[in-house]
Amino acid sequence: MLSINLYRMQSNKNNIECCLIRVRFCKTIGGILMKAIVWTKYGAPDVLQLQEIEKPTPKDNEVLIKVLAATVTAGDCEVRSSKFPLWLWIIMRLYIGLRKPKRITILGQELAGKIESVGKDVTLFKKGDQIFASPFFGSYAEYMCLPEDGVLAIKPANMTYEEAATVPTGGFTSLHFLRKGNIQSGQRVLINGAGGSIGTIGVQLAKYFGGEVTAVDSTMKLDMLRSIGADKVIDYTQEDFTKNGETYDVIFDIVGKSSFSGSIKSLKKKGFYLIANPTLSKMVRGKWTSMISSKKVITKMAKDNIEDLNFFRELIEAGNLKTVIDRRYPLEQIIEAHSYVDTGQKTGNVVITFGL
Ligand SMILES: NC(=O)c1ccc[n+]([C@@H]2O[C@H](COP(=O)([O-])OP(=O)(O)OC[C@H]3O[C@@H](n4cnc5c(N)ncnc54)[C@H](OP(=O)(O)O)[C@@H]3O)[C@@H](O)[C@H]2O)c1
Fold first, then answer.
1. Across the chain, what does the average pLDDT equal?
2. What's the count of helices (H) and strands (E) in the chain, helices before strands?
3. How far does residue 62's CA lie from ligand 1's centre (Å)?
4. Is the CATH number 3.40.50.720 carried by domain 170-298?
């Protein structure tokens, strides 16, 4: 493999900027290489390997994105280690690969970056556009291609790449479930597991929809939850919300750790119990409860779409939605980043940086 480093001096009116352009040629195929985190085995974070692989070329209907920020979500860690409720484990293994990952070999479900080039049929984006996106995996790489009608949109002008990359996954899931909860102004909404990627956006969306929000999480996250708008907070290490006699119009259980019967009891008549991480048993009991009572249980998964991404941009630019970033790791420290998220203790989001 031949590796050439070119130092280029660029001047602009105020300063002289030195950029390092690394161009790496693959001897065997003549293509340009890029850094990516390749995933070839299910297991602990050290199954993730930093490799140099061929930089993709956009098809006629695709854009080539220079990835400038990605994230490590709880979902990435669950996929990496294949830790799911049984029903989901079977579906995921059948889809990704029974013994080892085959259909998905680069993780990373969200990103922000810049369009580097576009295929000849692309009309929606142009070179230089700053975007945020929700690819179906693949963002742990310096470049990736997406169809122009994929789930990508112009990045909010008032967010950095690192901030914008954290929005799609938490945003789609929160918006999907909270819309199903049909929150009316002044209704009481409880969010369980509010301090993570989904919950920090969920708290703000529930407030935006007019709810009076109670956020449940561990002690160290409560001040942050108040700061993003929670009206009340409950420390789950001290108090079980299903046993304190309070009732809610909507309970959004993001971590899926609240007791089913306790949560149903804590719902008002015609209330909604929204479960982002349901077991098969909760899905079956949910269907039954929805059939025989006025209370509705929603377990259907969220779907990503461009309209919602544009909705998030509008909310963010209007100052109605912000993001919470806990830690940042360079791509090269992906194992450390996954190990931290595996602890379950992250506050908000963990970002992967690409040396802007
Ligand atoms: N249904 C869907 O469409 C969908 C989409 C994406 C993700 N998900 C799933 O949703 C789940 C959560 O995702 P996330 O990204 O928000 O995770 P996250 O960022 O890890 O946040 C989870 C939060 O829950 C807290 N928590 C842990 N145990 C708790 C308990 N017993 N009671 C209350 N809070 C508790 C954690 O804090 P401490 O650890 O400090 O206690 C953490 O703040 C994941 O399992 C993910 O796979 C579902």
1. 91
2. 10, 17
3. 33
4. yes
pLDDT digits (tens, 9 = 90+) for 101-143: 999 999 999 999 999 999 999 999 999 999 999 998 999 999 9
CA distance 48 to 156: 31
pLDDT of res. 16: 32
Model pLDDT, residue 17: 37
Is residue 242 a contact partner of residue 258, using CB atoms and an 8 Å limit? yes
Q: Which residues contact 141 (CB under 8 A, 6 or more apart)?
A: 34, 35, 36, 37, 53, 67, 106, 108
Q: For a ligand 1 pocket test, name from 198, 201, 350 the mutation site with the most ligand atoms within 8 angstroms of its C-beta.
A: 198
Domain limits, the chain: 35-166+325-353, 170-298
Please name the fold of domain 35-166+325-353: Quinone Oxidoreductase; Chain A, domain 1 (3.90.180)
Nearest CA to ligand 1 atom 46: 75
**C-alpha atoms less than 13 angstroms from C-alpha of 163 in its C-beta half-sphere:** 15
State the Cα–Cα distance between residues 67 and 55, nearest whole angstrom. Answer: 12
Task: Quickly state the pLDDT bin for 99 (edges 50, 70, 90).
Answer: very high
